[in-house]
């Protein structure tokens, strides 16, 4: 739906939804933000904890410049302002999974300033775009994790995530529907994965969103917002927005008022519930971290970051369209970085762009979906696919024969030429052989021949089908059509 068309229908009329997202993305790096501890997912509790992460006395943080580099590259990917001077602040609060009693973050002087992300809310119409503003990207350390299900009366603390580097990517409140929020999150995830600054695995917690929602009558001032914390899938983000917006409308129309608070989303019921009242910045007693010097980035560092960026989704999509690929197919092919890299390798192997796009988005993606696989698990390589498409292009294989060969490729991993040779699947353009079969088909179907010559031209397809069937699908369809037209005239 477009921005203007999505409305909540309340008893008192239409309501507009205003949405902003704060996305926490775990930085792909060799260590944590301020220590050398590992960050592998799924490790045994408390096996990836340095003395710094555990806040042992006398331990001092040292910034991991790889984490800073990745955040800067992310900012550049969304054309954001990169602040050459930034600073770390302490965000003070007490919680059992926060050993220091504070989180090192960046409130006042973030590493990355304002940028923008262009989205296509309608999957079927990628040309209908909208720009969502990004207010800032700052880096901060993650907290640990409380485990309440290990003992009947005690809670345990796992500090493996303590100190893990996060980018907090804060959008402007520019989204007006669940569809727009979903499109923004998908696009942001794609950019992060292209850049390589975050793996985007929401199920493992590498990327999660805090969802800010408020409602208002169209044209009114902004309403009071709530923040639903740590939502870990695009589908759940959209569901949380839909539920929370309707809840706020019903609350206001019943005479109540929305309270600024933090809420949690229940994935089973699709509802949100209150967690705590929303704190303001002064509640955290922010102040500059005395153990960390400001970050000062020089031009050589920024130039190296910029030079390391890959071709990004929007640029790749435009390049594909310039090759004659449809906007929809270009959007599908660039949605996931692995698929785009696979398709680029297919083009580099010599495949014609339009034929390659048609085959990849229909035959290959269809087969992978049926098998429950992603592109990284494809049993068919780009080079093999290019060989298969070349056999179609030079007339060795018809479309139907190519499908048969592809099925064998999926099962065996063999090269197309080998399959064609071993199984005798080569298409024939032998006019003498085809003419002989056509003569037999015509002789066996005198009634249809009389009807065709009497003006029922739709029967031409019948004769094509009978000829192809008699030749086991191996006849060149173009040759069959030409020879049939002469024989039936």
Automatic annotation (TrEMBL):
InterPro entries: Asn/Gln-tRNA_amidoTrfase_suB/E, Asn/Gln-tRNA_Trfase_suB/E_cat, Asn/Gln_amidotransferase, Asn/Gln_tRNA_amidoTrase-B-like, GatB, GatB_C_1, GatB_Yqey_C_2, Gln-tRNA_amidoTrfase_suB_CS. The keyword Ligase applies. It is an enzyme of class 6 (ligase). Residues 341-488 form the Asn/Gln amidotransferase domain. Pfam families: GatB_N, GatB_Yqey. Its EC number is 6.3.5.-. The keyword Ubl conjugation does not apply. It catalyses: L-glutamyl-tRNA(Gln) + L-glutamine + ATP + H2O = L-glutaminyl-tRNA(Gln) + L-glutamate + ADP + phosphate + H(+); L-aspartyl-tRNA(Asn) + L-glutamine + ATP + H2O = L-asparaginyl-tRNA(Asn) + L-glutamate + ADP + phosphate + 2 H(+). Keywords: ATP-binding, Ligase, Nucleotide-binding, Protein biosynthesis. It comes from the Bacteria. Heterotrimer of A, B and C subunits. Belongs to the GatB/GatE family. GatB subfamily. Allows the formation of correctly charged Asn-tRNA(Asn) or Gln-tRNA(Gln) through the transamidation of misacylated Asp-tRNA(Asn) or Glu-tRNA(Gln) in organisms which lack either or both of asparaginyl-tRNA or glutaminyl-tRNA synthetases. The reaction takes place in the presence of glutamine and ATP through an activated phospho-Asp-tRNA(Asn) or phospho-Glu-tRNA(Gln). NCBIfam families: gatB, PRK05477.1-2, PRK05477.1-4, PRK05477.1-5. PANTHER family: GLUTAMYL-TRNA GLN AMIDOTRANSFERASE SUBUNIT B MITOCHONDRIAL AND PROKARYOTIC PET112-RELATED, GLUTAMYL-TRNA(GLN) AMIDOTRANSFERASE SUBUNIT B, MITOCHONDRIAL. This is Aspartyl/glutamyl-tRNA(Asn/Gln) amidotransferase subunit B.
